[in-house]
Structures are given as structure tokens and as C-alpha cells.
Amino acid sequence: MQIADIDLKRYSNHFSSYTELRLHENTSQQIALLNGDVIANTRDTSGGVSSRVFDKGAWGFSSNANMTDEAIESTISAATKNADFLARRCGDDNASLPAARGEASSDFRTKLPRKSQEEIMAFLKSCDEYIVSACPDIVSRQVVLNSLDMEKKLYTSEGSIGHNVNTRTLISIKLATRNNANEPVELMESFGHRGQFEDVFPDMEEVKQKVDELYQHLMNKKDAVKPVSGYHDVILASDLAGILAHEAIGHTTEGDIVRAGSVAGDYLGQKVASELVTLVDFANTYEGETLPVPVYLDDEGVVSKDAVIIEKGVLKSFMHNKDSAAYFDMDLTGNARAFSYTDEPLVRMRNTAILPGKDKIEDMIASIDDGYLLMRWTNGQADSTSEFMFGVQMGYEIKDGKLGRAITDTTISGVAFDMLKEITMLSDEMTWNCAGMCGKKQPMPVGMGGPAIKTKMFVGGE
Amino acid sequence: MSETVLAKQTLEEICRAGFEKAVCQVSNDELHELQSENGEINLFRTNFETDIRLSGIRDQRRASLGVNKTDKATIGNAIDELKAMAEGANADPAFDIAAAQPADIFSAGPDEPDYDLMYDRLKEVQNYVADAYPILNLRSVGITYFKRRSCLVNSNDVQFESVRAQYRVSVSFSSKDGLATSSMMYIGYSRYHLDDPLKNTVNLDALFQQSTEQIKTEHLPGKFVGDLVIAPTCLSSFLGFLTARIGDAPMISGTSVYKDKLNEQVASDVLTLHSAPVSDEICSGYWVTGDGYKAENSTIIDKGKLNSYLLGLYGANKTGLSRAVNGGGCYIVEPGEHRFEQIINQVEQGILINRFSGGRPNDRGDFSGIAKNSYYIKDGKIQFPIRETTVSGNMIELLQSIQSVSSERLDSGSSVFPWVRVCGITAS
């Protein structure tokens, strides 16, 4: 039976206290070409039912791969027993959660006829052939398609009801060459959008543009120099601004992380950034545009709303699930999300962005005598101290207001609430990245956005 | 229906669909988890999962697919889809499945979870921390009983059945005193039993103590080139550069710096590294490789020499090199001759690193990253916890620069690692 055909309300007579009942199915596909050979050709579908029950401050959770009547009823029963197991041992009679009732449905599956596996494979082979023709000086190439469709249907004992299908499709290109010392030099980029393959890649244009840009940067990187280790004036390209918003600031302001001791908990209402900085975790829409990871109703049945974290430099609020909102006595924001039917909802970011400013990128570069332009991140981590780190695989020196030589891979780091105060320019462009996969306990697709940023940061190097 | 019956039935159907070579693996997982957050036990979870993996090769075209329902319609649709996926793929003679081997049955671990003991161990560590380290916050503690029943069959008459159960423990924590906050630290381990209190396992009590010290950190006195004493908690971050580059993709593409380095010295002769999925020391191991071969232990680096690549069947066929006898992971580093204290005493100037937050090294091995939960060492003594400290170097040179390996090792259930001292690292 399909998720759409199952009426969850009919199981509400099995609820004995606050209960969430969720049907959830993830379908993913990966096709990987290495130097033209298909080395991965896989598809996975994993779904089932989960139930979470709140009893005297304790949560019971259970899940089952089957979605039959019997499986759904036994899952609710198991979750209820699990909550009771804890409630009897360590329950708190006074514990309560903020109530919420909402309804939402959304479906981002394509309305176009689905392409066959053969057609998708032919598209990827065309991508590979384009790389061969357009990038003569490479020694290795990879083209990888990844897609994820996530369908969720939710019913809560408070009457919230939702049915949402989020989709995204990404292509990663990795090119490698050799420098004059015959050492490998590589660059990788992932790009794509919300939506299924048919909507995201209607033709080769975006792929060709990305390959051309990547190849040009790779050729520049062949002669790259190591950056000089230390604090520098830097411009973070807009793709780096997104991960800065997510890793360096976003995580420290998630309600559960604040409760666990993040330094952000001490700064609420205080100036933590240049007044140029406004940072928002958007639920689903920005300036009328549907964002990479639109969330309308979260997995606790809360209507999602934008969470304004920093407004003109002042720390305004945090992101919450029911637990953290209850603990801090703050409004719900609808940030509770689960990755799989086997997972409980956690406080997760949705589309986190620093809002753009009014500067032109060329003016920003011209304003730096000795520094770096940094672009294309590889990974990132943050800490409860707000100390952060990103890997950067591409960048250029800035000397006397002009771009200079390419630099080798590096790591940039700092203390977020110090670095934010050093921001002096924000570009007027806004770039959204759809390729983020956050790794806080469970994986989770996230959107990230921002303009180019001028600040000071520690750059690893010689 | 048992995993074996379902796997065999499905395999027959894949073959009937026209695949010349086929593999089917059926797994049923049970997960029972108690979790605490911020010192409060707040979640009890029971999950029951099924996973069916189908793989087939037809006209040298390969496809793989996973579903988690066992009804006839789902499996029938999956096989139809597998056919379509293979038809759309390109032919490659390197695709193959494991050769015939004698059938075998494996099992390890407790049959059932002990909920009361799981609860008691969780409560015990909370009470201990509350008494011994009042400023330490146990952000999250999870004790999980995980059991997997699995059967893998292929069309070359391979049949392996297994049951493995274990307890998995994860602990993350930080300290806070007023406005002073330490970096977060986390550690995980697995065991077949919960006989020991958590605090007595994987050096956890010492890490708790260190966390409370780390609320007051200092900057390094200045940039220097010196030693790095790498703790077992982050050694995999440094060994990972080599192990990631001796697998299929980098070896096939030819971009691995370890290509053509078999039997050559790639590390200091004090380093011997095993991949030991069937070792008694490893409780999170595996008996069967992803390709369907019975796994064996192997030595990856023998006294600094590269003894084996980590090629799967496809990578071996593609490169003409030997297939590894396992799928990697489950790493054990042979102990050295020096006590941890002696290793610290050997350091003129350096850093004891407990957690590494680093960017991905490039293919040449250059790396830089932040030393977290770490200490400055001067004149053979640990001086103070450090903040905002970047360490950088080259992974290839780092492995060759290993000076000493500790006799004490930390057993996480999925690895057994000592403390390792390397030199020539830039700290700033």
C-alpha cells in the first residue's frame, strides 16, 4: 500500500498520551562514472512506520519496516510501552510540552514524464564525454548523480496532519590533473536543486557551465602556492557564506545545543556581530522563491516558521523542537526533523542564510591589500564554543586589490562570535546551495545561502 | 520466513529474470536504545528493520538495489527495476561476484538485550559525573543493543549466515562554569557485554577529567614546528589518508600517491597496522566482505612497509592487482615499547591532540585543522589546554615521521589504537 493511501487518523484510538505517528519513505539513487566506467549503479528504497510517545517527560519510540494495520498498531503499542518503561523509573509528573496543531501538504515530485534509467545513464555519459572534450589536461574524472526523495505523512494526537514529499537531485564532478612535479591536483563540485532529475537537469547547460568553471580553476590550481598561515583579510565567496551560516553560527543556536551548553546561550539579546549581519533559518520561502529544503510542517506537527537568529548584529532567538521550546519557554519554530522512519525528530536547520548587503564583489576585492578570496568548501565542523573549521579546496591570493595566484587546499577557522564582528562588507548577490547534508546524529539535507563576505579569519598554511 | 529461505528464493528469481550472476543479502536488524540528554534519561527506542540487497550482472552490466519490504510484489518490482537499471548501464568485464566457497555460519554476542542493566549503567554514569565532575554536562549518552541476522547467497553457491549482537555506547560531553565553556568531546565503543561501568571503559574517566580542565584554555606561546602526540581517539583521522587511497576508486583512477608502492616503506618502521575484521579484539567486525568472500585478517602496513592494498573484487579486476582478503576497517595498530608518560617525556615542544577537526587533505597529503580538546607540551611535560590552535603538515610525511608508539592501547570495539608520536608538525 502506498503512503498516500493510508489514513493515519484511524489509529488515534490507540493513543494514550501525546503521540506522533509517522509514515516515512526515502528513495535514493546513485550512479557513479569513473573515467567513463559505471562503478556504481544503485537504488535504495527504505520506509516504514514510526511512533513517538511522551509520558511524564520521557519519550518512547518505535519503528517497523512494515506499514500494515498490524505493524502500525504494534508500533504505537511498543512506543507507548517504551515511554512507560522510562516514566516508571524516572518520570516527572510536571513535565509538559507546548501544544501545536497544524496542517500542511506539499509535493515536489516532477509533473513531467519520468525518464528511464537508460535516458539518465545516457545523460551522465554525455556529461562525461563533454568533460573529455572540454578538459584536455585532466588525468582522471568522476561524474556522480545522487538523488533523494523523502516522503512523510504525519498525524499527532493534537490533530496535526501533514503529507510532504521533498526531493533533490545533485551531480558531483571531480577533475584531477598533475602539476609540474607530477603530483595530483584535484577539484570537486556538487550542484543541483530541489526537484527530481527531469526538473533539475532538463538539458546539459548547467553541467557544461560548471565543468568549464571547474576546469579553469583546476588549471589555475596546478600552479597554486601555499597560503601563509595566520589571520588575514579574506573574502568568503557566497558558497562559503552558506556553510558559515550553517556550521559556525547555526549549530550553536539550535535549541538542544544551547541547552547542552553552547556559548550562544549566554549571548541572547546581545550584539554578537557587525550590524551588517542578519542571519535567518528560513522555513520554506525567501522573497517569494521556494527554497532548497522547504519545510511547512515539522515532524512534531508544528507549522514551520522562519527563525530570525541574528538581526542587525543582535542575537535574537534560537531554533527549537518541542523539548527545547519547553525548556527555554520560547515559541516553537518547527525545526524538528527526522531523516529516516527509524529516527526521532531532532532540532535541524532548514535553509540557513546570511542576508545580502549592498557591496559589489569587485569593490570588496579591491578593498584588500593582502589577503585571500576563498571558495568551494569540502567539509566543516563547529563547536559549542563557537569555534569553527571549514576545509577549502579553491582560493586565490589578493594583492593590492587584485586577484593573484591560486592557493592550495587549506583550512579556515575562527571563533564565530568574534569573526562576525569583523564583517565589514557583504555583497549584493545571494546564492543558495542545495547540496548540504548535515551530520548531526542523523544525516539531513539542508539548504544554505548567503552573499560574499569580507571579514578576518585564520587561514591554515605555511 | 527465515533470512536464508528468503535470500535463496529471491536469488532464484533474479537468475530467472536473465541475470547470469546474482547476489542477494537479507538482513533483519533489531535496535534497542536508551538515551539521555543533558543528564536526563529521555528516550527509549526499539526499531525493527529489514533490508534486502539485490545485485545482478547481465551481459557484463551490473546493477544493485535495496528494498526493505519482503512481500512478493515489492521483490518482483525490485527485480524488474534491477533489469532496467542493468540494461541502462555500460558493459565492463571487470564486474564479477565472489567465487564458490564452503557455506558457513557465524554468530557472536548476547541473544537478548538486558534493559535493566542498560538503564542501570546509564544511571550509574550520570550519578558518577554529577558527584565527581559537577561542571561537566553529559550532553548525550546512548546505550544501544544492536542485533543483525543476515544471510548472503550468490549464484556461485556462496551461502553465509550470521548473527551478531553487541552493545554500542556513545558519550558526548562538555564542561561549563559560568561563561567558560569547553570544547565538546565524544567517544563511542562497542562490547558484547555491559560488565564494566562506562567510566572505566575507553579511558572515559580521564577524558571527563580533561574536559573540566578545558574550560580554561590558553593560546600557544607562539608558532613552532614540533611533535604531535596523537591520541587513540583521533588516530583514525591520520591513518585514514592512507587507507582511503589504497581502495578501489583512487587506485583505478591512478591518482593515489600509494600506487606502485606495494612492499615499499610508506611509514616509519615502528608502525604496523592490521585490518582485522575477524579478530577476537574486534567486536564490531564482519565475517563476510561486501563482495561475498569470507573475510580474513590482514596486515596493511608491516613495520612501515605497505603490505596490502584494500581492493575489492572490481578494483582488483580493473587494476590487475590482488583482491584484499577483507574490506578494510577494524584497524589494529601494534603496541610500541614506551609508556604514554615516557612518550610525553620525549617531547621537547609539541601538542597532545585528542580530537582533530580538520579539512579533507588534498591528494598530495597536505592537511591542516584544529587541535580540539588538546594540550601544549613543553620540555617533556603537559602544560595547559590550548585554544584556536591549527596544526598542519603532510599526511605522507607524518606517517613516515612516527617516532614512537605507546604500549597502552584503547579498544573501541571497532579499532585498537595506541598513542603515537610524530614530528615535524607546524602548530600556530
What does this 3D model show about the protein?
The complex is a heterodimer of chains A (462) and B (428). With 462 residues, chain A is α+β, with helices and mostly antiparallel strands. Chain A is built from nine helices and 24 strands. In chain A, the strands form five sheets. In chain A, strands 1, 2, 3, 4, 5, 6 and 7 form a seven-stranded mixed beta sheet that branches. In chain A, strand 12 (307-311) and strand 13 form a beta hairpin. The model of chain A has no long low-confidence stretch (mean pLDDT 95). With 428 residues, chain B is α+β, with helices and mostly antiparallel strands. Chain B folds into two domains: 3-213, PmbA/TldD superfamily (PmbA/TldD fold, 2-Layer Sandwich); 224-427, no CATH class. Chain B has helices at 3-16, 72-88, 115-132, 204-213, 235-244, 248-253, 313-319, 340-345, 395-400; strands at 21-37, 40-58, 61-67, 104-108, 136-154, 159-177, 180-181, 185-191, 224-230, 273-275, 298-302, 305-306, 331-333, 349-353, 355-358, 366-372, 375-378, 381-385, 390-394, 404-411, 416-427. In chain B, the strands form three sheets. In chain B, strands 9, 14, 15, 16, 17, 18, 19, 20 and 21 form a nine-stranded mixed beta sheet that branches. In chain B, strands 1, 2, 3, 4, 5, 6, 7 and 8 form an eight-stranded mixed beta sheet that branches. In chain B, strands 12-11-10-13 form a four-stranded antiparallel beta sheet, with no helix packed on it. Chain B is globular, with a radius of gyration of 24 Å. Classes of the chains: A alpha+beta (462), B alpha+beta (428). At the A-B interface, strand 2, strand 3, helix 1, helix 2 and strand 7 of A face strand 2, strand 3, helix 2, strand 5 and strand 6 of B. Strand 3 (58-64) of chain A pairs parallel with strand 2 of chain B, so a sheet runs across the interface.
